[in-house]
Amino acid sequence: VPQVFFRKYTQAEAQRLGLHGWCENTARGTVQGELEGPTEAVRQMKTWLRTTGSPNSQIERAEFGEEVPLAAYTHEEFGIRRHH
What we know:
Blueprint: H1 6-16, E1 20-25, E2 31-36, H2 39-51, E3 78-80
Parallel strand pairs: 1-3
Antiparallel strand pairs: 1-2
């Protein structure tokens, strides 16, 4: 997802919603990640990922795994992972 700044906008939206987790680009040209937080905030973020994204992105589809209850956050904040 080059040059559409999807990860940056995703991070900003996740932080706005108070979510923890991460996102990263994949070799397939997609973005993947994890979300942690209150159920309603996670649902709002999933809707944003399906329908909004960054201003220059074209979202063809969004796939989400199973939601799993957590006793505590496993990530301190929402960050962007980069591969080197």
